[in-house]
What does this fold into?
Amino acid sequence: MLVLEGLNLHAAGIRALAGRRTTPVKLGEAGLLVAHIGGYLAAVFLVLSPLQAVAFVALHQGLFGVYLGASFAPTTRACTSSARTTRSISCAARS
It folds into this structure.
C-alpha cells in the first residue's frame, strides 16, 4: 500500500491546486509543478529507452511512497487514538 502512497500524494497536490479559488500563488505553484513534471519526464525519457524510462518512473514513484511511509511510521508508533473520538490522540513522551 505504501508503494501507491506517493502517487496518492501527487494526485492530492494536483487536486488541491485545481480547487475553486484561483489565486496568483496557486497559478505560480501550478506553473512550478508543470515545469517539475515536464522536466522530470523529459530528462528520464531523453536518457533512457522508453521501456526503461517507464520502469524507472514506476520504481522511483513506488520507492518515494515507501520512503515517505517509512519516515512517517516511526513517529506515530507511540501514538494511540481514543476509542470514543477520533480527534483525541495522545502520544507517549519520547526520550
Q: What stands out?
A: The chain has a mean pLDDT of 81. The beta strands are 79-81, 89-91. The chain has three helices and two strands. The chain has one domain: 2-91.
